[in-house]
Amino acid sequence: MRIMIIGAGQVGRHLSRKFSAEGQDVVLIDRNETRLRRLERELNILAVHGSGASVRILEDAGIENTELFIAVTDSDEVNLVACLLSKKYNVKKRVARVRNEDFLSADAPLNEKALGIDMLISPDRAMTAEIMQLITVSEAFDTAEFADGQVSLLGYVINENNPCAGLTLQQLKQQKGSYRYVVAAIIRNEKTIIPGGDDRIEFGDKVYLMVRKQDIAEVENMFNLASRLPELVFIIGGGTIGFSVAKRLEALGINVRLVEEDADHCEFLTENLESTLVLNFDGLEANVLLEEGIEKADLIITVTDSDASNILASLLAKHHGARKCITKINRHDFIPLLGKLGIDVALSPREVAADMILRYVRRGSIVSVTTILGSDAEVIELKVPDRPKFKDAPLKSLFFPKGAIVGAIVRDRQVFIPSGETTLQPDDNLIIFFTKEAIQHVEAFFEH
After folding, report:
1. What pLDDT digit, counting tens, does each position of 164-217 carry?
2. 288-296 CB contacts, 8 Å cutoff, 24+ apart
3. pLDDT in tens, 272-298
4. Burial (Cβ within 10 Å: 0-12, 13-18, ≥19) of residue 105
5. Who wins on pLDDT, 445 or 355?
6. Distance from CA of residue 28 to its chain's centroid?
7. What are the chain's domains?
């Protein structure tokens, strides 16, 4: 598949690396020639210097043979114009990154449908949704939903109080209620393990569980965990993300204190929020944070435009007693390091946005795709092809590719957490966790 990406910023670079590693035919267009040449040397891609809103540049880059067109520059106008130009060349799918809310609401005069663009992506909206999911399941450091929200993939850190530390998966399966979840992956020393029965869960591991939504509380109890909504939340940064999260938390009846350094913007926040207490000071002022009760906070969310400020504010709040922090970080390559500093959750808006785009790329009957933050693993939801080898076949008999595991099965809107004895039917939706080495094997498994 030929994929044309406009913009070699963080989203464009992340997608180019991902697609190139999978053997896709990637064309990357950007006005920064130095950045392009560096990426061209690093990746197996075609780099074209110029504007993605130029017909000549698009034609020179081979737009007429492109199946997927992704415009992710920092300019809404360039992204929209580029996508509109691509329509003339019968590109199958078009994706544009936008920040302006005027394009994003369903009743906007120029929304996705009116523009003829398959997907408009707002990194800020995607971040808000991700943060709210993490607040709902507060013990998890990562979360994703599948099967229209019926199935959750949840990442937990195994601490010293966890009764499952030291047990093999085979031993876990002998415990009451183990049929309610699948251990999809273990991340240890930054390496992703798709575990078998003899693999052991160790203290400090990051464990991903596939769970039906209605079983989350019971499964957490087995792991000595108990998610609950926070009572007091501090938000550092009153930009689009901070404002949106505050409004959603207000709707849940949560006590919110929003810290914003800009006095004029504080007036806007005060006028447009109801119960949130808006505070005008620098989020790194420890004395003021203590005066406002940071030590009592169940959660601190740092979403300023500065990575350094977000990291320092999170560490400062944790030092003074805040229970958990969610930290916005633009440099996604820093994310694996932040856990060692005591940061509970680090999210990159650009990486979250890139996740949303991946669902348009896979071959076959792919329903959705999610990448695992700070890992080389992915989760896909796909439809089982109507082939004889899959009909009434137990999972254990199918010789599923190494490095992949079926975490859940959706059949007629009912969700099953599978075992080796579980049989498949054509048109089942499978939710599969796999490492990057297994991607092509998984695709081939369902194509042949």
Report:
1. 999 999 999 888 888 899 999 998 887 888 888 899 999 999 999 999 999 999
2. 289/234, 289/259, 289/316, 289/317, 289/320, 290/320, 292/234, 292/257, 293/232, 293/257, 294/234, 294/320, 294/321, 294/322, 295/320, 295/321, 295/322, 296/232, 296/321
3. 999 999 999 999 999 999 999 999 999
4. exposed
5. 445
6. 23
7. 2-121 (3.40.50.720), 128-222 (3.30.70.1450), 232-323 (3.40.50.720), 358-447 (3.30.70.1450)
